[in-house]
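Practice problem: predict the structure.
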Amino acid sequence: MRDEMIRIVEGYLDGLRKKDLSKVAFAPDVTFESPLSARLSGEQAVVDFLSGLFPAIQDIRVKQHIVEGEFVATVFDLDTTFGVIPVFDCFRVSNGKLRKIRPFYDPRPITNPEES
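Answer:
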């Protein structure tokens, strides 16, 4: 179970890295909320938003996964055109699908690059 949950999360991160979310196991009612977005709900809304980030994403380097129950907490470095942004992402995975994606990071490198 733990390995499957990590595989699903890594599939999402790999989709971001490759700029192709077509193979990501999103639940139809997946939710996404980040420091730079309102709460989004539904696979298409989430895919549309994330696809808009593709030009800025250069690489993702996973540092750690922590699994408990239906939740996977992942710490990774997001290498972007704004620099490297450390991210803590909380995922909810159930029935083999991503149900919730909630990244936490400092948005200043994106919103105020001259100040970071």
